[in-house]
Amino acid sequence: MTLHLVTGGSGYFGSLLVARLVERGEQVRVLDLNDASDRPHGVEFVQGDIRDHAAVSAAVDGVDVVYHNVAQVPLARDEHLLRSVNVDGTRLLLDVARTARVAKVVHTSSSAVFGVPESNPVLPTTVPKPEEAYGHAKLAVYPLQLVLHLLAQMLVERAQRLVHQHQLGVE
Questions:
Q1: How confident is the model at residue 1 (pLDDT cuts 50, 70, 90)?
Q2: Of 6, 24, 36, 109, which has the most beta carbons under 10 Å away?
Q3: For residues 40 and 165, what is the distance between their CA atoms, to the nearest angstrom?
Q4: Share of the chain above pLDDT 90, in %
Q5: What amino acid positions are annotated as catalytic residues?
C-alpha cells in the first residue's frame, strides 16, 4: 500500500487532503506542529517543525508520496519567518525526500507568486511578479523544485488563497 505524507496536515487544506486520501483507502501520515482534534482514525501523526531535520526525516521515512502544504502565512508579517519556513523548510524537505528516494512530491504553492497578474486567466506562461514577502518566499522555492523535477517526479500546485472560518485566526 502507498504511504502518503501530508505536511501541514492539521491545517485547513492539509486536513481536506488527508480526509480525501483516507476516503480512498490510502495510508496517511501527517507532519505538523499541532495535531488536529479531528484527525481521522488510523492516520499517523509526527509532531515537528518543517525546519527540523530529525522531524522531517522521521516523517519521510518509508513514504512513497509527499504532499507539501506547510507554509508560514503572510499574517505573520515576519519576513525571516516566512523565508525560513517557506524556503528553508521546503529545501530541507526536498533534500530529505530525494535522499529517501520518495517517488513523488506535490508542492502546494500560491497564486501570490503572480502578484496582480496583467491578464487572466493565469497561464503556465504567465511571468511571476510577487508583490509582497510571502509571494517572494513562495517563488524562491521554484528553482529548488526545478532541480528536483529534473532528478525525479514533482508536481507544483498553485492554490488561490484558502481561508476557512476558524483557520489562521479568522472568526
A1: confident
A2: 6
A3: 20
A4: 48
A5: 134
147-161 pLDDT, tens digit per residue, is 554 445 444 444 444
Residue 13 to residue 88: CA distance in whole angstroms? 21
- For residue 79, what pLDDT is reported? 85
Q: Are 57 and 96 in contact (CB under 8 A)?
A: yes
Cβ atoms of 110 and 157 within 8 Å: the answer is no
DSSP string, 56-73: HHHHHTT-SEEEE-----
Q: What is the 3-state secondary structure (H, E, C) of 82-132?
A: HHHHHHHHHHHHHHHHHHCCCCEEEEEEEHHHHCCCCCCCCCCCCCCCCCC
pTM: 0.80
Phi, psi of 125 (to 5 degrees): -90, -5
Under 8 Å between Cβ of 14 and 157: no
Contacts of 144 (CB under 8 A, 6+ apart): 90, 91, 94
